[in-house]
Specification:
single chain; Rossmann fold; 5-stranded parallel β-sheet; 10 strands
Length: about 325
């Protein structure tokens, strides 16, 4: 068993620690309600940026706030201060040691933003640079391919937004559902023999699709192209076909009918479509747990996807723990 698979299987325990940390999450949420920021900006790289995509969708949908992705190079390369007075700045990082994120957080705090770090190392430079810190408590992760840290970050962001919005959390059984995530052997066997694929999601699911695409690239050498179901229709879908399959993550919410219609069109054109969620004529329906919470269910789907991608990497003769040319901590300027 690879270390990646071991750490995938540790995700339920990591999320249980997140839920045990709810008093800290609720304290941060209370501070955010007091601040009542006019907008939110988030800075992250790699897998953490996909957690940021998920979090931005939740903030926009559940709080009605504009949440935008920061461009860290404006601070670290161009040294251009941004107008962030009164805003909320969120930095997301596993290591908390990337110089560009540190520069971005420092600049945001100097500009008058309330800074919040979501990190897996509460003693990291990024945590020290931010006024508020939420430790995602995923524990040590040695595989280069991040998995349990991503799941724990997603769970932390979901709990934070619901607490901030005064919504019921409904996350008590999430660790058990993560542990029960079904395997996707059909996806693993298909991935073992392809060179490229689309991953698709919409709303919060877009972050999940982006994360799956990254894991396909780094562990399997597959060019995974992630798109919103809406953006796919604007031109990229011309690439889809028999040799260009689609892996779709569909949450059971208002976005579902639109995504189903697009994917049904692709399936009718003989594109192999693998769909987690929804009902799509001509597509392969992937096993999922009975729907319960549209947002939390996406984390369960991601665990299933991680398992399939890890299996595909091994089937391709690759080591998912040590992708070529990559290292665990990436420090970008």
């Amino acid at each position: 068993m690879s270390q990646m698979r071991t750490e995938i299987d540790e995700a339920p325990t990591a999320v249980a620690r997140v839920l045990a940390n709810l008093p800290a999450i609720e304290a941060v949420a209370a501070r955010l309600r007091t601040l009542d920021p006019p907008f939110v900006t988030l800075a992250a790289r790699g897998s953490s940026s996909h957690a940021g995509t998920f979090l931005r969708a939740l903030i926009g949908r559940d709080l009605g706030l504009t949440a935008a992705a920061a461009m860290p190079s404006l601070a670290s390369v161009y040294h251009r201060p941004q107008r962030l007075k009164g805003a909320l700045f969120i930095a997301i990082s596993q290591s908390g040691r990337s110089p560009d994120l540190l520069a971005c957080a420092t600049q945001a705090r100097d500009a008058g933003a309330l800074t919040l770090a979501l990190v897996n190392d509460a003693a990291s430079p990024l945590a020290e640079a931010c006024e508020l810190v939420l430790d995602i408590q995923a524990g040590p992760e040695s595989s280069v391919a991040a998995t349990k840290t991503v799941i724990a970050t997603l769970a932390t962001g979901l709990a934070l937004v619901r607490a901030w919005a005064g919504m019921p959390l409904h996350l008590d059984n999430l660790p058990q559902r993560l542990a029960a995530a079904p395997d996707w052997p059909g996806v693993a066997s298909t991935l073992a023999g392809i060179a490229h694929t689309f991953t698709v999601g919409r709303g919060p699911a877009l972050g999940i699709a982006k994360e799956a695409a990254l894991k396909l690239a780094e562990t399997c050498g597959i060019a995974g192209l992630a798109f919103s179901a809406a953006e796919l229709a604007h031109g990229p879908m011309a690439l889809a076909g028999k040799g260009f399959p689609v892996l779709a993550f569909l949450q059971n919410d208002a976005a579902l009918p639109h995504s189903e219609a697009l994917l049904a069109t692709l399936a009718a054109r003989a594109t192999p479509v693998f769909a987690a969620g929804g009902t799509i004529a001509g597509a392969t329906s992937l096993p999922i747990l009975p729907p319960q919470d549209p947002d939390a269910d996406l984390l369960v789907m991601l665990v299933s996807a991680y398992r399939a991608i890890e299996a595909a990497a091994r089937a391709r003769g690759l080591d998912p723990d040590h992708p070529r040319a990559l290292q665990k901590v990436t420090q970008t300027i």
